[in-house]
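Exercise 7. Given the encoded structure of a 127-residue chain, write a plausible sequence.
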């Protein structure tokens, strides 16, 4: 009787394990199908065109910030040249580089604040 019980227990365990693996297989198959659908959707012509247009829009938007960025860099460079000149003193060169960095960052911050304030909508309900 004990050997029949062991076989039943082993068969039940085996059946449970088979059911578990079958459920896991179905879940993995559904995940693969979903991934395939996402890949298929991402390479569709309409999606490729949409991503291309978005890239063009981002490029145009970044060009609006190009002039303030260039002016900030030039301003920093000029401030360094004014302070350092043609000096070969290493301390003056380091101070000139630090000044260039500070001026460039300041001008970038000022120009980005002006750009943000230009694009913000004015509040209509101010008293």
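Solution.
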């Amino acid at each position: 009787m004990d050997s029949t019980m062991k076989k039943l227990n082993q068969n039940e365990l085996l059946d449970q394990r088979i059911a578990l693996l079958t459920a896991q297989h179905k879940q993995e198959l559904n995940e693969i199908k979903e991934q395939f659908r996402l890949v298929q959707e991402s390479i569709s012509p309409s999606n490729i065109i949409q991503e291309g247009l978005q890239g063009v829009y981002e490029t145009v938007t970044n060009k609006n910030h190009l002039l303030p960025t260039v002016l900030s860099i030039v301003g920093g460079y000029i401030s360094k040249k004014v302070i350092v000149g043609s000096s070969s003193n290493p301390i003056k060169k380091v101070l000139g580089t630090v000044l260039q960095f500070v001026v460039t960052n300041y001008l970038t911050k000022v120009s980005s604040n002006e750009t943000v304030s230009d694009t913000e909508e004015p509040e209509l309900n101010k008293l």
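Remark. The chain has one domain: 12-82+91-109. Students should compare their own answers with the one above.
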